[in-house]
C-alpha cells in the first residue's frame, strides 16, 4: 500500500501539468422569433484572428487520472498567438449561416449555394464581422498501445468581438462580445480545427441569443448603446462639377393616358444602365438635362458612375448629386448631356390599384440583358415597420441589375422604382418584389414635380402616416 502512494501522487501530478485553463461558457437560451416577423437580412463577411503574438493559445496535457498513459508527451504549451493566421473561411461562413438560420435569422450568402451567391448577398442589410480576441485550447494527443497516433481530443473556448455595419446608412450600429465553448470527446486528426469550429459555433449561437442584436434585426429596435459615428472618408473629397443642393424641378410632366402597347421600344430609351464598383444596376431619366433616378445601393459610395444609355449607344459619366439611404434612392446628373437626345418618362404619384398591369425595365443579372422588359401586376401595398417605409409589392420579375429601374403602369407612367426582390435557394418568389413609390422617391431626393395632374386621386400615404394598406 505504501508503495502505491508515490505512484498515485505521480499520476495526480502528471494529470494537472501543462494544460491551459479553458472557460466552460454556457449556451444562452434561444430567443423567440416574433410572430409574423420579417427579419432584416444579415450577412457574415469575415473573421479576423487578433490574439497577440506570445499569448498562449494551445496546450497538451494528460487530461484525466490515466491521461499520462493515453495522452502523448510533451505536456506543455505548444503554440502561441494567432494574429493574421489563416483559417478555412468557408467553414466558418457555413457555421455562421447554419447556426443563425437555425435561430430564425435571414442569413445571406450561403457558401453552400453553387449559383447566385453574390446576388443573394446583395440583399444584406446588416454586414457582420468578428475579431477573435482570445482563444484557449487544451488538448490530448491520443495514442494506442502500439504508439500509433489516433488524433487529438480536448476542449476550447473562444472570445469574439462582433461589429454590425448597416449597409443602408453606412455606419456601425452595434458592437458586442460573446464567448463560446467546445469539447471533443473522441480523438480526431483534425481535432484542433474542430475544437475551434465548435467554440466558434457556440459564440455565434450566443450572438443570435443576444437580446439587443435580436431586437435590432427582428424588430428594427435601436440598440441601447449610443449610436457610433457615421464613417467619414479621411481622404480629400474629389472635385465635383455640380452643386449637390441644386434645385431640381420636373416641368411639363403630363401624365400619359395612352396604352403602352406598341410604345415600349420607345419608352426603353429613357432607361439606362448604371455601373459602379464593379457591379451594375438600372436607372431612368427624369429631365432632359441628364438627371437620373436610381437606387442608393446601386451607386454605393461612388462620386461618379458610368451611365450606359439604351442600346449601349452612349457610355457616359454621371455625378452622384445626392442619396437617401433610408429610402434607398439616389440622384445622378450626367456630366455632359450636350447634344444627347434624352427621352424622359412621365411620373404619376397616384397609388396604383392592386391588380393593375405594370412593367419593369432594366438590366437583370447580366449587362448584355440591358433593355429587358417584364410584365406583371400590382400584388399589394406594404408598410415595412422596421424601416417605416411604404413599398409597392408586385409579381413582375426583377433580378439583381434591375435595381433602380422604373416600374411603369399600363400607360407608361413611372409609379415606382425597383428596390429589392426575394429569393429562396436559386429562384425568385413570385409576388414578393418591392418597389419604392415614385412620390416617396421624389420627396427623399428633394425633387419638385410640376406639370399637369400631379395628383389626380388619392396619393400614397406619407412614410410617417398611420399604417393603412387598403388600396
Rg over C-alpha atoms, rounded to the nearest angstrom: 29 Å
Beta-strand content bin: 25-35%
Architecture of the largest domain in CATH?
3-Layer(aba) Sandwich
Task: Specify the CATH class of the largest domain.
Answer: Alpha Beta
Number of domains: 2
Total number of helices: 9
| CATH fold topology of the largest domain | Rossmann fold
Shape: elongated
Number of strands: 22
**Which parts are unreliable, with pLDDT below 50 for 5 consecutive residues or more?**
1-16, 226-237, 452-462, 464-471
Structural class: alpha+beta
Could you report the average pLDDT, rounded to the nearest whole number?
Answer: 80
Task: Explain what this protein looks like in three dimensions.
With 471 residues, the chain is α+β, with helices and mostly antiparallel strands. Helix 3 (89-101) packs parallel to helix 5 (191-208). Mean pLDDT is 80; it is low at 1-16, 226-237, 452-462 and 464-471. The chain is built from nine helices and 22 strands. The protein has helices spanning 4-15, 67-70, 89-101, 117-121, 191-208, 211-219, 264-267, 296-299, 438-444; strands at residues 42-49, 56-60, 77-80, 126-143, 149-166, 171-188, 248-250, 271-276, 279-285, 291-294, 304-308, 315-324, 329-334, 357-362, 372-384, 389-394, 406-409, 414-420, 423-424, 427-428, 433-437, 447-449. The chain has two domains: 11-219, Rossmann fold, CATH 3.40.50; 248-449, Thrombin, subunit H, CATH 2.40.10. The strands form five sheets. Strands 1, 2, 3, 4, 5 and 6 form a six-stranded mixed beta sheet that branches. The N and C termini lie far apart (91 Å). It is elongated and about 90 Å long. A hairpin with a 4-residue loop joins strand 12 (315-324) and strand 13.
Amino acid at each position: 500500500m505504501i508503495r502505491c502512494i508515490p505512484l498515485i501522487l505521480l499520476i495526480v501530478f502528471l494529470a494537472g501539468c501543462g494544460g491551459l485553463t479553458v472557460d466552460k461558457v454556457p449556451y444562452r437560451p434561444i430567443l423567440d422569433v416574433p410572430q409574423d416577423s420579417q427579419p432584416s437580412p444579415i450577412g457574415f463577411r469575415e473573421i479576423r484572428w487578433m490574439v497577440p503574438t506570445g499569448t498562449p493559445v494551445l496546450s497538451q496535457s494528460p487530461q484525466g487520472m490515466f491521461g499520462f498513459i493515453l495522452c502523448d508527451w510533451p505536456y506543455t504549451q505548444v503554440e502561441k498567438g494567432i494574429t493574421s493566421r489563416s483559417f478555412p473561411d468557408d467553414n466558418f461562413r457555413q457555421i455562421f449561416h447554419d447556426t443563425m438560420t437555425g435561430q430564425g435569422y435571414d442569413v445571406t450568402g450561403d457558401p453552400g449555394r453553387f449559383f447566385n451567391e453574390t446576388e443573394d448577398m446583395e440583399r444584406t442589410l446588416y454586414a457582420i464581422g468578428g475579431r477573435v480576441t482570445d482563444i484557449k485550447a487544451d488538448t490530448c494527443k491520443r495514442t494506442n498501445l502500439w504508439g500509433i497516433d489516433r488524433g487529438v481530443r480536448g476542449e476550447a473556448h473562444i472570445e469574439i468581438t462582433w461589429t454590425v455595419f448597416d449597409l443602408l446608412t453606412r455606419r456601425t450600429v452595434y458592437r458586442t462580445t460573446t464567448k463560446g465553448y467546445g469539447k471533443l470527446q473522441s480523438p480526431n486528426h483534425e481535432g484542433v480545427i474542430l475544437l475551434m469550429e465548435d467554440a466558434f459555433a457556440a459564440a455565434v449561437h450566443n450572438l443570435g441569443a443576444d437580446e439587443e442584436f435580436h431586437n435590432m434585426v427582428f424588430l428594427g429596435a435601436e440598440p441601447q448603446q449610443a449610436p457610433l459615428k457615421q464613417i467619414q472618408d479621411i481622404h480629400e473629397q474629389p472635385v465635383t462639377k455640380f452643386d449637390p443642393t441644386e434645385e431640381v424641378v420636373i416641368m411639363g410632366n403630363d401624365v400619359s393616358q395612352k396604352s403602352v402597347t406598341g410604345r415600349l421600344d420607345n419608352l426603353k430609351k429613357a432607361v439606362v444602365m448604371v455601373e459602379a464598383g464593379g457591379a451594375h444596376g438600372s436607372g431612368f431619366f427624369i429631365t432632359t438635362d441628364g438627371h437620373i433616378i436610381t437606387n442608393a445601393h446601386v451607386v454605393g459610395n461612388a462620386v461618379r458612375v458610368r451611365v450606359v444609355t439604351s442600346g449601349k449607344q452612349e457610355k457616359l459619366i454621371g455625378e452622384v448629386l445626392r442619396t437617401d439611404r433610408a429610402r434607398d434612392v439616389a440622384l445622378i446628373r450626367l456630366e455632359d448631356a450636350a447634344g444627347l437626345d434624352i427621352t424622359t418618362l412621365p411620373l404619376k404619384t397616384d397609388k396604383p390599384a392592386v391588380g393593375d398591369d405594370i412593367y419593369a425595365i432594366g438590366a437583370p443579372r447580366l449587362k448584355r440583358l440591358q433593355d429587358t422588359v417584364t410584365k406583371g401586376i400590382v400584388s399589394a401595398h406594404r408598410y415595412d415597420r422596421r424601416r417605416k417605409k411604404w413599398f409597392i409589392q408586385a409579381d413582375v420579375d426583377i433580378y439583381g441589375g434591375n435595381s433602380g429601374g422604373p416600374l411603369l403602369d399600363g400607360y407608361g407612367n413611372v409609379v415606382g422604382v425597383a428596390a429589392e426582390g426575394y429569393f429562396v435557394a436559386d429562384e425568385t418568389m413570385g409576388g414578393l418584389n418591392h418597389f419604392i413609390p415614385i412620390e416617396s422617391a421624389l420627396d427623399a431626393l428633394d425633387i419638385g414635380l410640376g406639370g399637369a395632374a400631379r395628383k389626380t386621386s388619392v396619393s400614397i400615404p406619407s412614410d410617417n402616416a398611420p399604417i393603412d394598406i387598403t388600396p
